[in-house]
From TrEMBL:
Composition bias type Low complexity, residue spans: 26-35
Name used for this protein in its record: Beta-barrel porin
Disordered: annotated segments: 26-51
Pfam families, A to Z: Porin_10
Highest taxon, organism lineage: Bacteria
Length: 650
């Protein structure tokens, strides 16, 4: 973070603090509420409806509610208040916000993959280019609002090393039943390894989305619509050159590190259009339709007349016609274009305490490339349904299934009680299009003989609630067969055997003296079977934070101050190949065990939240000078992150 951004941040923080103490809310007036200007109380009937008996404004989180499409679709409609909590607020980056359940390249916006195996929600074809999913606000994740006043949210984060992130959201109701909104987000993250200038960015991201929701006056018709777009550009570095290749290359020198790539860049461009609407035909019975259109364009470019050529494999795939851009011997120019259309029609409803749903879904799509002779196209037809029963708010069960005609399926069941939660998932899902067929300057493959991947997953959580202590022992068991992964040559391969994962874990939250909190997550993973080597998951994965949480200064400021640590045991973590945008197996670089400790301060003044986080507090105190998150990509060094969010409700 530069001096200019630091000055702006501190100036804004001081201005906010000054405004709080310069115009302090009377103690007998609830926090976050202000008196109306005199003389206006009776001038407008609508305004009087937003005032309580003490003429206090009630605009705030309770008047700006939101929900997701899935709440409406599954008849579990719930409108939630905007988030003003402090717990975990300091983990503003997408990877940190998952409590580090993703492996990235050590920088905000870099390629990332889940640490643990996840059963895909989509059992049909996908593009297979998923390393930037975390940074895309997909149409399925849009928040739809119902506001009594215009609502604006501004989140500004200034990370050390010029890792900056800005998110702006605005929404308002046009009528009581019609809302429109817009979101804009950007990431500017300078290279952590060997930047050559102040604005030598590794990541440049620009994203926006538009959304609207409408309900008819008779409340029978509901419509949700959204458009999203992301352009994610990455100046790839390939990692630190190993000392055995260049004896002058040294780990943990960060800005002075020697890296492989300086003239290579990747781009992931995504656009989505979505419409969901439903109509209540009879009381408790609705028909609905979903339309989706998605586009993803993935490119990689490198100048091979530079030293970047030393990073890539020697073999080349090109045409004899060197006038073609992708066939020039002095450049790499890979491009793949994925598109998808989806239409789903169905009916749903409630019969007493039981919810039911049935649908028919058609997906068509393709993967195109300048290297392809013909596009890799697909057409898929699905039948699906769901059933849910609620005995009361504490006891319930759910079952859902989807059948991809003729050879794919996903079945999931869930049982919830006050004492234990149990779930089971069984699925057979298709290989991705990138795994099946790929053409580029450095890699080429055809895997039309790949079989679908099968998985059985069982989960259980025991609920133990004691005074000041919440414990959740849990167990996950996976059985995976025909798993497809990228092997040591960075090529897709299908495992012939099965992999069995047994993953016991525990989460707990201990409260001491009402103001001191200790939260911990611990997972142990054991993998056996013929395909065990295809999964590189650390045996021990742990996160923990200890912090003070409480009000200060006559309850005007709410504060969280504490330490947060994370740990992964030794493992040969997957390496990253930028030209194909895939993580792949490797056996020569052990990402050694290393505990990382951060210190953080989060506080809230009225509706404004501020964070300070000092990363890697224990740097220089360990046997190693730093740590790795991916082979040849270091984690953060000691640096300070700052952030602030404002919420405006009028």
């Amino acid at each position: 973070m530069g001096y200019k951004q630091l000055f702006i941040f501190l100036w804004l923080t001081a201005a906010i603090v000054g405004s709080v103490y310069g115009q302090q809310i009377p103690r007998n007036q609830p926090q976050g509420q202000q008196r109306s200007p005199q003389g206006n109380q009776d001038s407008d009937g609508q305004r009087r409806g937003l005032l309580d008996d003490s003429t206090k404004m009630v605009y705030g989180p309770k008047t700006s509610l939101f929900y997701y499409e899935k709440y409406l679709r599954y008849n579990r409609f719930e409108q939630m208040e905007v988030d003003t909590s402090l717990t975990g607020f300091h983990n503003y980056e997408p990877v940190a916000n998952t409590w580090y359940r993703y492996q990235d390249l050590g920088n905000l916006g870099s390629a990332a993959k889940p640490v643990f195996y996840e059963v895909p929600r989509q059992i049909g074809r996908t593009s297979g280019f998923h390393v930037y999913d975390l940074y895309h606000n997909s149409a399925d994740s849009i928040k739809y609002f119902n506001t009594k006043s215009p609502y604006t949210q501004l989140d500004a984060f200034f990370g050390g090393g010029n890792r900056n992130k800005l998110d702006i959201a605005f929404t308002r109701n046009i009528t009581p039943k019609w809302n429109v909104g817009i979101n804009y987000g950007t990431i500017r993250a300078r290279k952590m390894l060997n930047p050559t200038r102040r604005d030598d960015n590794m990541v440049v991201n620009d994203s926006y989305s538009f959304h609207t929701n409408y309900q008819s006056d008779n409340e029978k018709y509901f419509l949700l619509a959204a458009v999203t777009r992301m352009k994610h550009r990455v100046n790839e570095q390939g990692g630190i050159i190993p000392p055995e290749v260049d004896t002058t290359s040294i780990f943990f020198t960060y800005e002075d590190s020697k890296v492989w790539l300086r003239n290579s860049r990747a781009t992931d461009l995504r656009q989505e259009y979505k419409v969901y609407h439903q109509y209540e035909i009879l009381k408790g019975w609705q028909a609905y339709h979903v339309f989706d259109k998605k586009k993803q364009e993935v490119t990689f470019f490198s100048r091979l007349a530079t030293s970047d050529s030393l990073f890539f494999n020697a073999n080349r795939f090109h045409s004899s016609d060197t006038t073609l851009l992708h066939s020039r011997r002095d450049t790499t120019n890979n491009q793949h274009h994925f598109s998808e259309w989806r239409n789903e029609v169905g009916f749903k409803g409630d019969f007493g305490p039981v919810y039911y749903n049935a649908y028919l879904k058609l997906r068509t799509g393709r993967m195109a490339s300048i290297f392809f002779d013909t596009n890799n196209s697909f057409t898929e037809l699905f039948l699906g349904g769901a059933l849910r029963g609620e005995i009361n708010e504490n006891w319930s069960f759910e079952a859902e299934g989807e059948y991809l005609i003729p050879d794919g399926y996903r079945i999931q069941g869930l049982f919830v009680s006050p004492f234990i939660d149990l779930s089971y998932t069984k699925a057979l899902y298709k290989p991705t299009l990138a795994q099946q067929k790929y053409r580029g300057n450095h890699f080429r493959w055809d895997n039309n003989d790949f079989s679908s991947v099968g998985v059985d997953q069982a989960k259980g959580v025991i609920k133990i609630d004691l005074p000041n202590l919440r414990i959740r022992p849990n167990l996950t068991i996976n059985r995976i067969n025909n798993y497809i992964y990228f092997n040591r040559e960075a090529m897709p391969e299908q495992a012939s055997g099965e992999a069995f994962m047994v993953m016991p874990g525990v989460n707990y939250h201990l409260i001491l003296s009402g103001k001191f909190h200790w939260q911990t997550e611990l997972i142990y993973t054991a993998i056996t079977g013929g395909a065990a080597d295809a999964f590189r998951i650390p045996n021990v994965f742990a996160n923990s934070r200890f912090f003070f949480d409480g009000p200060l200064f006559n309850d005007n400021i709410y504060v969280q101050l504490g330490l947060e640590g994370r740990y992964r045991s030794d493992n040969f973590a997957d390496a990253y190949m930028p030209s194909t945008q895939q993580f792949y197996l490797q056996d020569h670089f052990n990402v050694f065990a290393y505990p990382v400790v951060d210190v953080f301060l989060n506080f809230r003044i009225n509706r404004t939240r501020v964070l300070f986080r000092y990363n890697h507090l224990n740097a220089g105190m360990m046997e190693q000078n730093g740590y790795f998150v991916t082979p040849y990509f270091t984690g953060l060094k000691q640096m300070l992150d700052l952030g602030i969010t404002w919420a405006f409700f009028d």
